[in-house]
Every structure is written in structure tokens, then in C-alpha cells.
Backbone:
């Protein structure tokens, strides 16, 4: 019976390949996507390289992403209600910020835009 352990290992591997494994609580929090664009009051000017933070209002858990070359951002989050914050720099104020957003499984909320005002002589 020298080959019995090899046979048992092969059966275990085949069995594991057919079974997805246990369903964990975190698997049930699939969630969705939050996306938007950061612009200045001049809509033709985008703001790349800015940190966007989404904060779960119930737990305080924070997730960060950065705006791309066009000022756009996208971040995947578990289901929950989120406040969205933008990193501001010297001389900037918010003209518009998105309201908190509720994300459920499979949701895509692509309208979470920011508009900032840059004072003359302000900025980094």
C-alpha cells in the first residue's frame, strides 16, 4: 500500500477543487463602487493626484484612493453608508461636495463629484 497516501492526496485535491470553501461573513458584504470627478470652478480644469477618502459612517473604517490624470476616481467598498472627503491644499475651498452615499451589493454610484475654488495666488 505504498500508493495509498498519493491516492488520498489526489482525492483531497479533487474534492477541494469542486468545493468553494466556507462562506464567510465578509463574503456577504460584497458592496459596490463609488466614483466621481474632482474639478475646479473652471470645469475644464481637472485635479489629478488628490487623495479621496471614503469613511463608513457606522464604523469609521476609512479607505483611500487617488484621482487620476483627468481628476476622476473610483473605489470599491463593502456595502454601507459612506462620507467622501477630498484632500484640499492651500488657498482652496469646496464649492461642491457629494452627500453621503449608501452602497449596496452591486451598486455603482458614479456621480460623487467635487468642485473646488482656488483663490488667486493660492495652491501649492
Residues:
Amino acid at each position: 500500500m505504498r500508493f495509498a497516501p498519493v491516492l488520498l492526496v489526489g482525492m483531497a485535491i479533487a474534492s477541494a477543487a469542486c468545493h468553494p470553501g466556507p462562506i464567510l461573513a465578509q463574503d456577504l458584504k460584497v458592496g459596490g463602487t463609488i466614483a466621481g470627478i474632482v474639478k475646479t470652478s473652471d470645469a475644464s480644469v481637472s485635479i489629478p493626484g488628490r487623495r479621496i477618502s471614503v469613511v463608513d459612517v457606522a464604523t469609521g473604517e476609512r479607505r483611500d484612493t487617488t484621482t487620476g490624470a483627468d481628476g476622476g476616481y473610483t473605489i470599491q467598498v463593502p456595502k454601507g453608508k459612506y462620507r467622501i472627503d477630498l484632500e484640499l491644499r492651500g488657498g482652496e475651498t469646496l464649492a461642491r461636495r457629494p452627500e453621503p452615499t449608501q452602497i449596496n451589493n452591486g451598486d455603482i454610484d458614479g456621480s460623487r463629484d467635487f468642485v473646488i475654488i482656488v483663490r488667486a495666488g493660492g495652491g501649492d
Observations:
- Helices lie at 4-18.
- The first helix runs from residue 4 to 18.
- The chain has one domain: 31-118.
